[in-house]
Amino acid sequence: MKNNRLFFIAIFFLLFFFLSDSLFAQSDLKGQRPKLGLVLSGGGAKGFAHVGVIKVLEEAGLQFDYIGGTSMGSIVGALYALGYHPDSIAQIIRSQDWNSVMKDKLPRNYIPIEEKYNFDRFVITFPIIERRVKVKGGLHSGQLVDLLLAKYLSPSFITNDFSELPVPFVCIATDLENGSNVVLNKGILHKAVRASLSIPGYFNPVTIDNRLLVDGGVINNFPVKEVKEHGADLIIGVDVQTGLHSRENLNSILNIIDQITSFYRMNANEEAVRLSDVYIKPNLQEYDMMSFDDYEDIMRLGEESALRFLPQLKKIADSINAVNPREPRVLDAKPLDSAFVTYIQYNGLKRIPKEFLDGALDISPRSWVQISELTEGLKRAYGSGFFESINYHLIPFDEDMGLVFNIREASSGIFGAGIHYDSDYKTALLLNATFKNVAIKGSKLFIDLNLGENQRLQGFYLVDRGSKIGFGTKATFFNMSLNEYSKNEIVDVYNVFQNTGEVFAQWTFKNTMRFRAGFTFENISIKSRFSESTLKGSNPFLVGFLNWSIDSYNKNQYATNGHKLNLTIKNVSALFDVNNKDITKNSLVFLMRYDNNIPVNAKHTFKPGVFAGFTIKDHVPPPQHWFLVGGQSHINYFDSFVPFTGLRFIENAGLYALIGNFSWQYNFYSKLYLTAKWDLGFVTETLEDLLNKPTLLSGFGLTVGYETAIGPVEISVMGSNINKGMTNFINIGYWF
Q1: Three-state DSSP class for residue 12
Q2: Coil, strand or helix: which one is 368?
Q3: What is the distance, to the nearest Å, from the Cα of residue 599 to the centroid of all Cα atoms in its chain?
Q4: Among 23, 189, 321, 670, which residue's Cβ finds the most Cβ atoms within 10 Å?
Q5: Would you say 224 and 276 are in contact if contact means Cβ atoms under 8 Å apart?
Q6: Are 217 and 265 in contact (CB under 8 A)?
Q7: Cα separation of 216 and 469, whole Å?
Q8: Do 707 and 665 meet the contact criterion of CB atoms below 8 Å apart?
C-alpha cells in the first residue's frame, strides 16, 4: 500500500508539472503583446505634420514595434525609428534653409571664385554628354538632401538591416523601369530614404541593387499593408495627402506631377485607410508639397489633429501595456560626431584625379574624421562643378569604420542660356558652353556668346589648383556703342571694337580670394559717327597686371552679408605709335573697388562702398583704361566702368576718381525689395583738379526690385546735381 501511495503521489506531481506548464503556455499565448505599427504617408512639406502627431503619440505612451513611411514620411519615420525625440526632429526642420536644400543651391562661399559669376545667370541649363546636349534626369541632383540625410541618419551606419534599428523600419520606393512597388528594409538607410523621396522629374533617380528608383509615392504613398506584412497587428496611420488638386492649383510642375501620380495610388490609398486601426488625417488643404516655409503651422496642425484622438490613443497604450509592460523608449538620438576611419574608398572616379578630392575633403586613412567637417568638404567639392553628386556612407570595419564615397562625375559639359535687358546695354541673349577636363584634368573651359546690340564672344580656360599655382588664358571679342554727353545732350556716338588675349598665373584661397598676375594683349578701334575718331584703325597695347579679388557675398543679387574687393595695378604700354597724340606710350593705373553688406536685421541691409582710381604721373592711357563713370549696369566690358546713380551710362570720365556709394536695402515683402541709393564723389582729368578744384558729383535714386525665375526685375528712378529732372533705369534678368 505504501509503495502504491508513493507511486500515485509521483504520478500526481508529474501530471501537475506537465499540466501547469501547458496552462502557463496557454496563458502566455492569450496574453501576447500585440505588435503596434506606425505608418507615415508622403506629401512633401505637408509631411512636417507627422512631427506634431508623433509628439501626441509620445504623450499617449505608445510604444511602436514597427515604423514605415514613404517620401517625407520616410524621413520623419526613420528619424523616429532611430530614437530622435519629436522636439529634436522639429528643431532639425527649423534649422534648414529648405529652399536651398530642395534646389541644391549651395551658399556662395562653397562656389569657386571664378564660378561665382556663372552661378546665377542662366535661365535654363542642359548637360552635354558625348558631344550632345541632353535632358537631365531631374531638375536637381538631390546632393544637399543626401548630405542632410547622411548626417542625421548616421547612427544607422552600424547596420545594414533596418529590422535591427531601435524600432524596425521600412520605406517604399518605385522602380522607374517597370513601375513596381519596392520595399526597402535593408542596405544604407539614408540612401533608401533618399530613394523614397526622389520626386520624379524633380530629383535624379537613385540606383539601389541595380534598380533605378524614384519616389514611392508614385504608386504607394501610404504603406500600411507593407508594415502589416512585416508583423504589425495594430496600425496607427497618419495621412498628410490632400487628394487631387483643383484646376486652379495645377499651376506648377510639381503640382502637375503630384496630380498625375495621385491617379496611380488612389486604390492603394483606399486599402491603406481600410487597414488602419487609427486613421489620423490633418487638415492641410491650404498647403502643398512645396510649402516648406510654413513648417511651424504644418507641425501645429499635425499636433492638433492627433489631440482629437488622444483618449483613444491612451486607451490603446494602456491596453497594450497591461499585457506586457515595458520601459518607455529613451529618445536621445543624435548625429554621429566623428568616426575613426581605417580606409577610404572612392567609387566612380574617372576623369577627376583622386588628389583633387583628397585636397577638398582634407581627410586621410587611419585618422579621426569629423562628420561636420566631412560635410563641409563635400560641399566644397560639389561646389567645384566637377560632380553631379558625391555621397558617402560608413561601414563597420573591425572596431573602426571604412569610409566609402559614391561619385557621379558631372557631364563633360553644360549648355546654358540666359536673357537680359537693361536701359544701358539693351536686350541681350546669352549662350554659354562650359566644358570640364579639357586637355588637363581639373580644367574648365567657358565659352560665352552675347547676342544683342552690344555683342561679345569670350573664351576662358582655367586650371585652378587652389593655393598652389594655377594658370589660365582668356580671349575676348566685342563691339559696343557709347554716347558722349555735354549739358544733357548727346554730342557724339562712338563704336568701340576690341579684341584681347590674356595669359595669367593664379592662386585661390578658400573660394573667396584670388590673386592673379599676367599679361593682356589688347587691340582696340574707336570710330566716331559724327567726328574724327580718337583711335582710328588698329591700336595694339600690352597690359601687365596684378589683381587681388575677394568675393564673399551670400547672393549675387540682393546680398545681405559679405563683401567684395577688386584691387588692380596695371601697366599699359602702346606697342606702336598711337593714332592720338594725347595718349602716352606707357601709363601706370591703379584702381580699387570695395563693396560691403552690413545686415541691420532680417529685413534691412546697409550697403556702403568706395571706388578709388588714379593714373601715375599724369600718363594718359587709352580710353578703355580711363575711369568711365555713370549708369547702373553691372556688366563690365572694361574693368574701369564705375556705376553712378543719377548719371547716364558713361556720362563722365577721367584719370582720377574717388567715389562713395551708400545704399539701404529693404526686403519689405517676400521677394520684393526697395533700395535707396546715394552716390557722391569726384572725377577729374588731372591730379591738380582733384586736389584743388574738384566738382562734386551727387546722385540719388530709389529702386523697386523683384526676384523672379529669370533674375531680378527692377525699376529705378534717379536724379543728380548735374542733370535736370529725373531719369529712370530698367533691368530685367540676371547680369551677364
Answers
A1: helix
A2: strand
A3: 21
A4: 189
A5: yes
A6: yes
A7: 48
A8: no
Q: Which amino acid would we find at residue 290?
A: M
pLDDT of 6 above 50: no
| Three-state secondary structure string covering 462-530 | EECCCCCCEEEEEEEEEEEEEEEEECCEEEEEEEEEEEEEEEEEEEEECCCEEEEEEEEEEEEEEEECC
**192 φ, ψ to 5°?**
-65, -45
Tell me how far apart the alpha carbons of residues 128 and 437 are, in angstroms, rounded to a whole number: 13
Asked if residue 641 has pLDDT above 70, the reply is: yes
166 and 82 Cβ atoms separated by less than 8 Å: yes
At residue 176, what is the residue type?
Answer: L
Residue 125 zone, left/alpha/beta (φ > 0; ψ -120 to 50; rest) = beta
Contacts of 31 (CB under 8 A, 6+ apart): 323, 324
What is the distance between the alpha carbons of residues 135 and 443, in angstroms, rounded to a whole number? 24
Question: E strands, 255-330, where?
Answer: 278-280
Assigned C-alpha cell, 622 = 587709352
> Among candidates 235, 165, 174, 224, which has minimal Cα distance to 200?
174
Nearest to 683 by CA among 697, 671, 673, 672: 697
H-type alpha helices, 353-441: 354-361, 371-383
Count of alpha carbons within 13 angstroms of residue 331, beta-carbon side: 20
Digit-coded pLDDT (tens) for 646-670: 998 888 889 999 999 999 999 999 8
For 691, residues 6+ apart whose C-beta sits below 8 A from its C-beta are none
* CA geometry: angle 221, 224, 226, nearest 5 deg: 95
All three cell numbers of 528, joined, read 566716331
Residue keyed to cell 574724327: 532
The tens digit of pLDDT for each residue in 170-179 reads 999 999 999 8
First and final C-alpha spacing in the chain:
115
**What pTM, to 2 d.p., does this model score?**
0.81
Name 456's bridge partners: 450, 478
Contact 409, 349 (CB under 8 A): yes
Count of residues for the chain? Answer: 736
- Cα–Cα distance for residue pair 626/281, rounded to 1 Å: 68
645: nearest Cα among 723, 567, 565, 733: 723
**From CA 154, how far away is CA 338, in angstroms rounded?**
10
Q: What is the pLDDT of residues 520-541, one digit of tens each?
A: 999 998 888 777 666 777 789 9
Q: What gap in Å lies between CA 262 and CA 255, rounded to an integer?
A: 10
Give pLDDT tens digits for 293-333. 999 999 999 999 999 999 999 999 999 988 878 888 899 99
Structural element, H or E, at residue 136: none
CA distance 212 to 210: 7
What's the CA gap between 302 and 48, in Å, rounded? 8
Q: Quote the CA–CA distance of 482 and 454 in Å, as a whole number.
A: 10
- Give the count of beta carbons closer than 10 Å to the beta carbon of residue 300: 16
Residue type, position 85, single letter: H
CB of 152 closer than 8 Å to CB of 335: yes
Question: Residue 640 belongs to what H/E stretch?
Answer: none
Closest among 143, 221, 132, 145 to 181, alpha carbons compared: 221
Q: How far apart are CA 48 and CA 500, in angstroms?
A: 55
Instruction: Give CA–CA dist 500/494, Å, rounded.
Output: 19
- The conformation of residue 265, written as its DSSP 8-state character, comes to H
- C-alpha grid cell, residue 286: 491650404
Amino acid at 491: V
Kindly state the helix (H) or strand (E) to which residue 381 belongs, with its residue range: helix 371-383
- Contact indicator for 602, 564 with CB cutoff of 8 Å: no
